[in-house]
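Fold this sequence, please.
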Amino acid sequence: MQQVLFHIPILQNQFGPEGIPIHGFGAMLFLTFVICMNFAVRRGRLGGVSADRIQDLSLVLLVSGIVGARIFYMIQYKVPFSQFFKIWEGGIVFYGSVLGGTIGYIVLYYYVLRRLKISTWVLADAIAPALAMGLVLGRVGCLLNGCCYGQVASSECASLEFPLLTGPVRSTVAQKYSYQTTLGFSSIDRSEENDPRTIVDKVEADSQALRAGLQPGDKILKFNGQDNGLLILFLTTPSGLDSVRKIEKDLGKLTEIDPVSENSQGLYTFLVTSPNLYLLAKDEFSKIPGVRQLSATDLLSYQLRNWPKGKAKVQFTVERNKEVIELPEYTPRSLGLQPTQLYESISMILMVFLLVSFYPFRRHDGQVMVLLMFGYAIHRFLNEMLRNDTDPIFDFVSLTASMTVSILVFAGAILLELYLRKTQPRRTV
């Protein structure tokens, strides 16, 4: 897993101290488009389709396919549509790209291909191997991003461990099912204490945290070189915010989460660097009309909710028996999971060879695409059984959205083959 491949050291003010991040998923998406378009051009020549038409089709399918894949993902996983353009972070579904690409093709056919008398089925057979190749490379992008992961694997099975701090897998194994903790240890609830900084409760056996030397009772003073400050989360009215700003210079740092408006309260955090300042800030807040303190935590716990991409490692400085100890850096990792991304890449590279080999022996135009529909529907249904990032969409049967669509695609392939057998002339081998 490599969510961020490297940084371009420019525009640090907009993108952070390291510059513009180049995400693994986005890089693979670009590489997939370039490779598959050129592959489709080569395949198109066999069917008499010009390179210009294949390139036009590739651009249309790229745009409409990504839009469809993104919308499908956002509906399935209930992602706010305000996040639509963050495609570099992952979050697309292949079947959504099929739907979007189909709509894009219909538009292109109606306005362009129909006038040029280019056969849909000749074109479909030409691009089918390129679509399969796109799945091969696309799942490598998923592997780099850490998404589309499988269930916890048994000791006898091949497995992959993903970084927990930045990996999407964290939302399932650490938060949803509580198979493990994010950092390799549990902590004592200190939200009501005078010093709410994290104190280690229990360290997971055979974890990277244990190997790094963390022990029960350790208080986290620093992480990754920065002080583990104390945070107050609070709501405030406009007048209350003005009063908080007056004490900000002496006590801490104010950060906006949901800004205050004229007729509503805003949500903010107030960061201080020591327990003494924390107690002073709490006391001052209690005196300000319009300010309501919600909770207290530390900077580590707060940043865990939105850990920066590409930062898989963590290093702690702890207080143990009144002694300050700097511990070595470590990477919290998930339990071994089924490598479903690799299963799909392997399955689809075999599908590419099958489609290319079958092409000269097809009975009629369109049959290569039908074979891809059959093969992918079967593979995706079985691979979904190993996935752990999707939930069933029905109460009465354990079928995910992609499993349901796989059944429909399989049935559609049968109907399409029957239709083509009646409408397309038989080819001579």
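The longest strand covers residues 291-298. The two ends are 45 Å apart (CA to CA).
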